[in-house]
Amino acid sequence: VKRICTVELKIMTARRYLRPLIGMRFEQYIGFRADEERRVSGFQSTYKQTVTRFPLYEKGITKAMVDAFWLSKPYNLELPPILGNCDLCLLKGKNSLIRIMATYPELAEKWIADEKRSGNTFFPDVSYEQLLDIAKLRGPDPSLEDALPAYTCHCNAL
To answer: Which of helix, strand or coil describes residue 58?
Structure first.
C-alpha cells in the first residue's frame, strides 16, 4: 500500500494551486509543535526554492498548550481523538477501525467506495466493507475516547 496522504493530498495539491499564482518560490508554514521535534528535525522539503517555517515549534507551543486553548473555548468539536483528520486511516489498525465504524458507520462509505473503485483493499486480508459488517454486529462503542492507532505516522504521532 502506498501512502499518499500528506504528500499528494496536501503538499502537492497546494503546490499545484500556488505555482501558477506565485511561481516556484514560496514559504510554507507547517503546524508541527514544540513537542514534535522529531518531525521538525526529520522534515525534508522537496523544493530548494521553498522556505519552510514551523511557527508553533518556533514559539514553543506544545500539545498541552493547544489542548488548553481549545478547553478555554465555550465549544468543542466533540470528536474522539482517534478520529482526527484521517477518520478511517488504515494506520489506525483494524480493531480501532471497527470501534470507530461501530459508532460512526457513515464514515465507512467513502472508504468502501474507494476500495470498489480501485478494485483493491487497504488491507490484504479484509475489506472496509467487511470491517463495517463486524462493526454493525458489535454496535456503538462507548469507550471510543480510549482508542489508539495501531501504527504511528506524521498525522497521528503524539
So the answer is: helix
Q: If DSSP codes are grouped into helix, strand and coil, which group holds residue 155?
A: coil
C-alpha cell recorded at residue 43: 522534515
Helix (H, G, I), strand (E, B), or coil: what is residue 28? strand
Torsion of CA 10, 12, 17, 20, to 10 degrees: 160
Taking Cα atoms as reference points, which of 133, 155, 158, 156 lies closest to residue 7? 155
- Could you give the CA distance from residue 125 to residue 52 in angstroms, rounded to a whole number? 40
H or E segment and range at residue 53: strand 51-53
User: Residue 155's pLDDT band (boundaries 50, 70, 90)?
Assistant: low
What's the grid cell of residue 78?
Answer: 466533540
Question: In the predicted model, is pLDDT for residue 19 greater than 50?
Answer: yes
More confident call, 11 vs 17: 17
